[in-house]
Every structure is written in structure tokens, then in C-alpha cells.
Amino acid sequence: MAGELDRERVAKYVVARRGSLGLTQEQLSERAGVTVKTIYNLEAGERWPQARTRSAIESALQWRPGDLRRIGEGLEPLGMPAPAGPEEALHELSELNAYFADLRDDPGEKRRMALAFLRALYGEPGGR
Predict the structure, then answer these.
(1) In this structure, are residues 41 and 28 in contact, taking their beta carbons and an 8 Å threshold?
(2) Positive or negative CA dihedral for 125, 14, 59, 4?
């Protein structure tokens, strides 16, 4: 990232989106599984949430992953993708099942790389 995020811009977008969805701070915090203080701090532009928290808030606001960062960088949120039809969803689940079956059978590097990727994607710590 080439510079600071505009937290005030993010705050305005979050407040506006929450309002357009008819949610209170409490309701948004419940949907996202975070504290009301986390929502308050985000809307006040005081703190930048961790990756997992941002993801939960984006989901609760019906935005795509990364939309909070995009807004902070001066871009527009992409919003939610159009829901997949039943056939497309079944195809995607089948594809995921095939990938995970392949990983179950691989005790080596491919499995470790997939786990590291998933941890990075979801903001998990590197190990237990």
C-alpha cells in the first residue's frame, strides 16, 4: 500500500451503509460478531480493525472482501457479487471438494502451502 488509509472516508461509508441497511451499531456488531466498541471505533475513524474483523464487518455490510481497504484508498466498494445460481454453486462446491480431496492425500509441501495461504487469507496466526 502506498500511503495511509483515509479512515474518515471509511467511517463515512460505513455509517452510510449501515444506515442504508437500517442497522444500529449494536445490530451491525451482532451480525459481524464483534463488539459495539469495534464498530464505534471504526465509525469514529479511530482504529483500523484487524483483517479477520474487517472481513466480518464487510460481510455484515454486504460488501466484498477488501472493500474497507478500497474505500480507505479512495476507491469505491465493489459490493456483493451476484449470487450464484444453484448449478454454479454445485459446480463450485464440487471443485472445492476435489481440491480438498487432493490436499488430504498430500502430506507434503502442497498441503503446507495451502494451509499457509488459508491462514494468510483469513488473518490467522502462523502456527499453534
Answers:
(1) no
(2) negative
